[in-house]
Amino acid sequence: MHYVRVFLQIVKYLFKARLEYPGAWVGGIIAQWFSYGIFMVMVMLTVWNFGTLAGWTPEEVLFLFAMYLLAYALGASFTFNLTREFRNMAINGTMDEAFCRPMPPFLYLVATTFNIGYVSHITLSGAAMIFSITRLEISWGAGQWLWLFVTLLSGGMITACLMLLCEFPALRLRSHSPLAMFFWQGREFLQYPLTIYPRPLQFIFTAILPFSFVGFYPVQVLLGKQDGIFPHVTMWLAPAVALILAGATALVWRFVSRGYESAGT
Amino acid sequence: MKHYIKLYAVLIAKDFRRFATYRTNIFAGITSALFMLAARYALWVTLFATGNAGDVTLAETMTFFVVGDVVMILTGGAGFTGTSLSEVIGADNMSGDIALKLSRPCSYHFQLVAGKHAGAIIQTLSHSLPIFIVAVIFIGILPPSGAEAFVWFVVAAILGGVILTLIDLILAYSVFWLTDFWYIAWYKRALFMLFGGTFLPLWFYPDSLRAAADVLPFRFAMFVPMEVYLGRLYGREIFVALGSAIFWIVVLFAVERLIWRRVQFKLVVQGG
């Protein structure tokens, strides 16, 4: 509990620092609303032209995209800035600081690099989600709303863990991580229903790079869909996948941080 | 003139060497380009499987994107996958390097254009050429609709590249009035996505949005050249389109000069 309070205090100071230049901050938020908003319109328009996409209506595809974007924003708020810094941390010694603070080093690093800019993604995807739920005339019970909440958290965790796992090599190599592209390009495939891709790709994005547990499988439960090559039970596995990835990330972090050597001043 | 050509070649060679030093960049560029092609192809195959595409074919659509990508990168510099001029000018302004570049014995714009063309060559080799080769072998890309169409396609692509560069420059000048600049490129990409048909060809647009796109200059960068290539624009329509492109070049050039004149009074070097 103490660490949560410290974490929130650090984030509060980051927020204050960011607001020193309110124009730049708001400019960035509006740009992301504009850009992602237009992207959503274009995706809707594309599917609308053809009627459906692999049996998904334009509103369902929008809901899937909103889920993907919201989960990405929730996860990336914690890890995006941190992973950008990995390759410089050992070079200029900024990670030394984390080992000298009276809190877990990883928590300190996540707090001090927290990205408040993702408020743009969160507000936009929230609005898109409300719009698509309204258009789909969905009437969910408490169980479905709880599932939405849980899978948004697990989606955020899966995103954050995959980003970290793909970027950790940068910390050791002190250069770009060769695995980074698997995260940044892999997530592009999340924007549409998994079933539009050939079976080998469906397998990869379920069993090897489990991006499909961020949006596709949880949304299947919420929209009552049962497409895909895996057994139906797969659509319920997102929270378990998130926990497994969190464990794997913790193990890899322990290995990577144990071998940390500062070259900085 | 000879001096400028030599200088231009030196600047391009310098940027190219800098890129080639990091070989993982080349590998990452090619792999991510192929990822993008796979995702796009899967999307369009699924959409065309619905049978609701009207008179447009899958081959035309994939040709539109694959050849269009080459066009935008070759004529418009680094295009959408690479660096925008707002990022270059913004970084120069923020670091103070702009003072050094303005005092060199060749214009700042010449250096910008040379850098953009170096980016074009790099992006072509690491991005659009691999996509083009893979698409030709595995997907099947349509050839130009005729020899004459190909000539007019090249002309339209060059004019489109000039329009793309001018819009990029005009938007980039806003960095001199702003404290941050990373997001300017987002506006550019979104505008071309919405009005330029870079995400969805304008054939598929509803009438009202198509009418808006038709009166704006964004479609000249990729959509118009590709319509000429595919033979969807022919005869007099080509000349009307090229005339409109020239009109927009004149208008955008005048706007660009006007803003650049204002920039020279606004410029404050912050770093260095």
Which characteristics define this entry?
heterodimer, A: 265 residues, B: 272 residues, mainly alpha, globular
Please provide a written account of the structure:
The complex is a heterodimer of chains A (265) and B (272). Chain A has helices at residues 2-18, 22-50, 58-92, 94-99, 105-112, 119-135, 142-173, 180-186, 199-208, 216-223, 238-258. Chain A is mainly alpha-helical. Chain A has one domain (2-263). The longest helix of chain A has 35 residues, at 58-92. The mean pLDDT of chain A is 90. Chain B has 272 residues and is mainly alpha-helical. Chain B has one domain. Chain B is globular. The chains are: A mainly alpha (265), B mainly alpha (272). Chain A binds chain B through residues 21, 23-24, 27-28, 31-32, 34-35, 38-39, 41-42, 45-47, 49-54, 175-176, 178, 180-181, 184-186, 188-189, 192, 196-198, 201, and chain B through 22, 24-25, 27-28, 31-32, 35-36, 38-39, 42-43, 45-48, 50, 52-53, 178-180, 182-184, 186-187, 189-190, 193-194, 199-200, 204-206, 209.
Structure described in brief:
The complex is a heterodimer of chains A (265) and B (272). With 265 residues, chain A is mainly alpha-helical. Helix content of chain A is 72%, strand content 0%.
Share of residues in strands of chain A: under 5%
**How many strands of chain B?**
0
Question: What is the CA-CA span between the terminal residues of chain A?
Answer: 33 Å
Q: What is the β-strand count of chain A?
A: 0
Number of helices of chain B: 11
Oligomer: heterodimer
Structural class of chain B: mainly alpha
Largest interface: A-B, 37 and 38 residues
Please tell me what the overall shape of chain A is.
globular
Helix- and strand-based class of chain A?
mainly alpha
Unreliable stretches of chain A, pLDDT < 50, 5 or more residues? none
The description of the largest β-sheet of chain B is: none
**Overall number of domains of chain A:** 1
Which range does the strand content of chain B fall in? under 5%
**Radius of gyration of chain A using CA atoms only:** 19 Å
Give the H and E element order of chain A. Answer: HHHHHHHHHHH
